[in-house]
Design brief:
Blueprint lengths: L1 H4 L2 H27 L7 H50 L6 H58 L9 H7 L6 H22 L3 H28 L5 H6 L3 H16 L5 H10 L1 H7 L2 H7 L2 H16 L5 H39 L7 H34 L2 H35 L3 H37 L3 H12 L2 E4 L2 E4 H29 L9 H24 L4 H17 L2 H16 L9 E2 L2 E2 L1
Antiparallel strand pairs: 1-2, 3-4
Helix pairs in contact: 2-3, 2-4, 3-4, 3-6, 7-9, 9-11, 9-16, 10-13, 13-14, 13-16, 14-15, 14-16, 15-16, 16-17, 17-19, 19-20
């Protein structure tokens, strides 16, 4: 215990860290109080909330280390007190020998010295604990304040928060210079960026090294793709995606930067996405560029203008006028694009009527028509959204107008970026798997795994874009909050405590168990086992038994995901045993008999069997 008391260095380090965090929280608190949060855009409020959350996470780590030291010191103090009481009780016993009484007094004196030495660091730790609790309350208050203002901004989406535009122009006035609001917004973003990079100081060098190593790797992939295409081992589509290696590298680096700053400053995320638009335009196929039209080029300009306009929210009249101008320009661009696409479609239909007998690629034509129809549908929906945004601006609902404009830009921007990034990743995967050894493995296993991989990839892309779109349209928070409330609501069924979330988890885990068991059986039976020198019938037995083992383990995992405890599982298996005893005896008997046939293999696939006069 005396050795563990020597913790002065640790205490001083925690004391310095808490002092640094206290100064940072005070500066952030001052910045929050100095700014009228109602005059900030939602993007700045989200950056402010993330800044408070960053400070809260750092403080949580310091408090965890402080709690560990305090608990160890408290346990030592309790142990010393218990030993002192024991030795005092020993010395108080009647008819005690003088030697034992002297020994008892010596032990009590040693324990007193240890307690005196422990009292000072323990007192310091307890004082630091009180200070850390106060700082934690300050951080929680800052997070709650920013979150409450964001919720207020979301509630204002359905209210007229400003007078109509013509009335605002008639009143005139300028509440503050433009530079004041711009300086406030930039101060929030730059301060957050410094603290965010400081908190991830160890990760930044690794990202820099990864980005530097990625550049020669992309060039190597392009050279390898050219050789494979020349040898006829790879299609032209992979080479098209890697034809511009600098663009592919910049897009991958931008994706890394977006992933790094997913909880970082909002303005820096916008700048990274804006810079990433250059490689996106370079990687989009000509067919996609011709389909999207001028929007592919002008959306980056609109994105930049909207980011700049969001910094000027401190001047409501100028902000409204600029926002309305950007909205009308976007609406005009989409309308002209749709009109041009309609004329081009009419001309193409006329040409097809004149050359109806010369069609050779109907499938590709149908795909092009599907993509064109999907883009036209999305463009018409965007026109409706932008018209609603312009009308909301005119009538006085600035919050709704700003949200619709930003969400339209962000969602369309992210869709094209995800599309281009997916093309690059697929091309890299095709080149990596085009070698002789990899080609044999792909040829052997891809037939069974291809549908699952393609489905999962598409689902991942759609979910990523969907979450981003929900966040952009300001409905992710209320939807997630409502879903969390519904899914966590618990109800009792006898001794079982269930919730809708546990049932959903059970259903999803069960589907995954069946899918995984089916995939494992298919891979074993079609790809792996036929290439092994096994006796006839062993492959079928191994694949079928593997299916049942994976399915059984998956169902146990599904029950665990649903929140069933071991005692509750005994009730389930007990009810299952009663059901088997009454009505499922033949089913279970036949199933067990089938397992025995798989193990012993008296009958094998391909045998001729005669049963009760029936030959087959």
């Amino acid at each position: 215990m005396q050795r563990r008391i020597q913790m002065a260095d640790k205490v001083r380090r925690i004391e310095r860290e808490l002092a640094r965090q206290e100064a940072a929280l005070d500066r952030l608190d001052e910045r929050t109080d100095r700014n009228d949060l109602g005059q900030l855009s939602v993007q700045r409020l989200e950056s402010l909330e993330r800044h408070w959350q960053l400070k809260e996470r750092g403080l949580t780590q310091t408090r965890a280390e402080l709690a560990r030291l305090t608990n160890a010191a408290s346990e030592d103090a309790a142990e010393l007190a218990a030993r002192r009481a024991a030795w005092q009780a020993t010395g108080a016993q009647p008819y005690l020998s003088p030697a034992l009484l002297e020994r008892s007094n010596e032990m009590v004196a040693q324990i007193d010295r240890a307690q005196a030495a422990l009292a000072d660091p323990l007192g310091q730790l307890l004082g630091l604990g009180r200070k850390s609790n106060a700082l934690a309350s300050q951080a929680q208050r800052g997070v709650a304040q920013a979150a409450a203002q964001i919720a207020e901004q979301d509630r204002r989406l359905v209210t007229m928060d400003h007078p109509p535009l013509w009335q605002a122009i008639g009143e005139g006035g300028m509440p503050q210079p433009v530079g004041v609001g711009l300086r406030r917004s930039l101060e929030i973003e730059t301060a957050f960026a410094r603290d965010y990079d400081s908190a991830h100081a160890r990760l930044l060098p690794a990202l820099g090294v990864a980005a530097a190593l990625l550049l020669p790797l992309v060039f190597w992939f392009r050279r390898r793709a050219r050789k494979l295409v020349a040898a006829g081992q790879l299609g032209e589509t992979a080479l098209q995606a890697l034809a511009r290696p600098w663009a592919a590298w910049l897009l991958l680096v931008a994706a890394m930067a977006v992933a790094y700053g997913v909880q970082g400053p909002h303005l820096r995320q916008q700048l990274v996405m804006l810079l990433g638009w250059i490689p996106v335009l370079g990687l989009l196929q000509r067919r996609m560029l011709s389909l999207v039209g001028p929007w592919a080029y002008l959306s980056a300009v609109f994105y930049f203008l909207n980011a700049v306009v969001s910094l000027l929210i401190g001047n409501p009249l100028l902000y409204r006028l600029l926002l309305l101008g950007v909205t009308l320009l976007m609406l005009l661009t989409l309308a002209l694009n749709l009109l041009r696409a309609r004329r081009r479609g009419a001309a193409r239909e006329a040409g097809e009527e004149g050359a109806a007998g010369e069609r050779g690629e109907e499938r590709e034509e149908r795909e092009n028509r599907f993509q064109s129809g999907s883009w036209h549908l999305v463009a018409w929906a965007a026109c409706v959204v932008l018209a609603v945004a312009a009308l909301s601006n005119l009538l006085g609902n600035i919050s709704l107008s700003a949200m619709l404009v930003s969400a339209t830009l962000d969602s369309s921007y992210a869709a094209l970026a995800i599309y281009a990034g997916a093309k690059v990743v697929i091309a890299l995967a095709q080149v990596a798997l085009a070698g002789p050894t990899a080609a044999r493995l792909v040829e052997r296993y891809w037939s069974s795994l291809a549908p699952a991989v393609v489905t999962l990839g598409r689902l991942l892309l759609i979910v990523t874009w969907g979450l981003f779109a929900l966040q952009s349209f300001r409905i992710y928070r209320p939807v997630s909050s409502m879903a969390l409330t519904v899914l966590t609501y618990k109800f009792q069924v006898g001794e079982l405590s269930l919730s809708l979330g546990s049932l959903v988890s059970f259903a999803i885990a069960t589907l995954l168990a069946f899918w995984l068991a089916k995939t494992v059986r298919q891979v074993l039976s079609e790809d792996i086992l036929p290439g092994l020198a096994l006796p006839r019938g062993v492959g079928n037995s191994v694949s079928s038994l593997s299916y049942y083992v994976v399915l059984f383990l998956g169902l146990l995992a599904a029950l665990a995901a649903a929140g069933f405890q071991v005692g509750q599982l005994t009730l389930v298996f007990g009810a299952l045993g009663v059901g088997i005893g009454f009505g499922l005896q033949d089913v279970v008997r036949n199933f067990v008999a089938g397992l025995i046939l798989m193990f012993e293999r008296p009958l094998q696939r391909g045998d001729t069997v005669e049963v009760a006069g029936v030959l087959g």
